[in-house]
Amino acid sequence: MHSQVTHQHLYNPHRSTLYIVVLTLILGALQLAWSTEFSEATPFLLSLGISKRLLSLVWLAGPLSGTIGQPIVGMLSDRCMFSYGKRRVFILIGCIATVMSLIALSHSVEIVETLLLPFDVSKSKVNLGIICFACLGIYVLDFSIAIIQTSSRALIVDVVPTEQQQIANAWAARMIGIFNLVGFAIGALNLKKLFPMLGDNQFKVLSLLLKDRPKMRH
Fold it and tell me: Across residues 21-44, what is the average pLDDT?
């Protein structure tokens, strides 16, 4: 029994509060992306002409990413053998995908119109392309968030000793709550007026601001 405890503490030594705060910061920062999607994506999709019936199918992305994406990510990260760390690789991939999908989603109109500009495409088909692109962006964004969430929670289990797991989970809950409040509070500001150079609507400005959100460091 003593040898097992010694072996555990060799790889998972007692962690300082600062270490745990930094470790769980990514879960809080992730809520900024989620709160932006939650508050801005629905009115944005409706403005594109998506029906409420289709909108409910689009938001299946959340449950699907949780029931399908998270178990797959967990299994793959368990088997990952990268020297950088089996969880950190997936967190990095998830962060890049989240930032890119959020920016692409908020700029769906400009991206699709630019891509279809060289072709003689009717306005109705362009609008259909914008809707399809935006719907795809929602799914990519939700699955990207699931990658970060799964890997970050698994990393807490990996690097924090058993006797500090409750403390780490408590800090994770605090971060999620705090950043949820911050995210929705930021969304209530007139960001278009504060940062006119970042975009012509709230969604675009939020997306570009979030690309510089905190990354996990150890």
Answer: 85
